[in-house]
Every structure is written in C-alpha cells, then in structure tokens.
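Q: What would this chain look like folded?
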Amino acid sequence: MEKKIKWGVMQKAIYDFTVKDAMGGDYKLSALKGKVLLVDLLYCYL
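A: My prediction, written as structure tokens:
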C-alpha cells in the first residue's frame, strides 16, 4: 500500500517492510499485524 504525498515521497505501511532476524533470514513485519510492536529507529554513528 503506497500513497504519494505532496513532496513526491512514498509512504508505506510498517507491514510492507521486511527485516533481518537474528539468524540473518528475512522476516516480514506483516506477520505481526494485529499485535503490539515496538519499533526502535535509533541509529548510531561509531
């Protein structure tokens, strides 16, 4: 589900993303739909 906004940026629902799990495999966030999810978007420069 993508929706174009005024500045040409695409918006996506959190469920459209795939992340890596601890073992390196792909995990679709759509599997968590309907559950409470804490998303930490902290990024550190080392």
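The mean pLDDT is 78.
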